[in-house]
Amino acid sequence: LKLLMIPVNSILGWNVHTTIVLGYFLAISAILLIYLISQKYLKGIYKTIPLIFFSIWFGFILKQNTFEINLFLGLLILANIHLLFRWMANPNIKIPFLMGIVSSVAVFSQQMTIVSMGVIFIIILIYSLTKYWPFKKIIFKIILPYSIGFIIIPIPMLLWFYSEGLMREFYFWNILYYFQEGGYPFNKYFSPNDIIMLTVLSIPFLLLTLRMFSRKNISWRTSTIWLSIFASIILTLLAVLHPRRYLYTLPTLSLLTGIEFQFLCQSKKRLAKIGLILVSIILGIYFLTDIAPWYTKAVIKGRTYEIQNIHHPGDYVYEAIEWIKKNT
């Protein structure tokens, strides 16, 4: 993604407004993708819940108008989940190929995405084994097309790095950097407010978890969504923790919110009705005490030009920002 942005920014003169325009484009694309996927898995009024959930949380989490790569990656994860569901309903060679392309764009945009995409790929392999596919069929109808789709992105990129004599730097910053001491600054601090926000945001995931443990038979769709969100939350907690990283999980959580509310509303069990009331109260309280005041303040304050990213001890840029505040 960053390599693709170089010619775009070069053409437009490295103008900061490019990022703002791309931010609008990404937000509209997110709403459109969530809307289209919601049409496939939800009924009636429940189709609107993912859009409402996403729209409320998106601005509150990001708190600025910019192109945010975590949202871009979150949309790729949701797209791959949808492709996996389509493949389960109608296995064909084209879908693993498309999944390979989507996975490649995600992984080579941010390396840690390999975990989330790897989970989805492993699920498709396990699913095919449970259907007693012969190993030869798995290779030629899943692994091979997926691999071909995956290498489309890195081959020209690696050739360019090689031609520029940058393979050593590519290896260091994309692989070695994450494993050596003093490399990637994995999270060492959890802000209470950030943890509260993540907990409230993850309520649909907690509901799904409770529902899974209360059932003997768990569907492949349920398992896929749960594992994908679980992997995303773990990555969010391991990485330098900023609320904007929650956008990595937000698209899939938005779809899940619609699924869970549809289940709770349609269930005739008394426990489900109690759960629906409790969840609505918790979300309502957080909205009234945190989200709504922020939106109100943002509207009244109007446009401002300031650093909106939230930094804290343990964040690798924290010391630099604190020094700037004290000395300028």
What does this protein look like?
The protein is 72% helix and 0% strand. The chain is mainly α. The radius of gyration is 21 Å and the shape is globular.
Number of helices: 15
Order of helices and strands: HHHHHHHHHHHHHHH
> How large a portion of the residues is in β-strands, by DSSP E?
under 5%
- Overall 3D shape: globular
Residue windows where pLDDT falls under 50 for at least 5 positions: none
Number of DSSP E strands: 0
- CA radius of gyration is 21 Å
Task: Return the structural class.
Answer: mainly alpha
Please report the distance between the alpha carbons of the first and last residues.
Answer: 34 Å
Mean pLDDT: 84
Largest sheet: none
Could you estimate the helical fraction of the residues in percent? over 70%
Which labels suit this protein?
328 residues, 15 helices, mainly alpha, globular, single chain
Provide the fold topology:
Elements: H1 2-11, H2 16-41, H3 49-62, H4 69-89, H5 94-107, H6 113-130, H7 135-151, H8 154-163, H9 167-174, H10 192-201, H11 203-213, H12 220-238, H13 250-266, H14 270-301, H15 318-327
Q: Would you kindly provide a brief summary of this structure?
A:
The protein is mainly α.
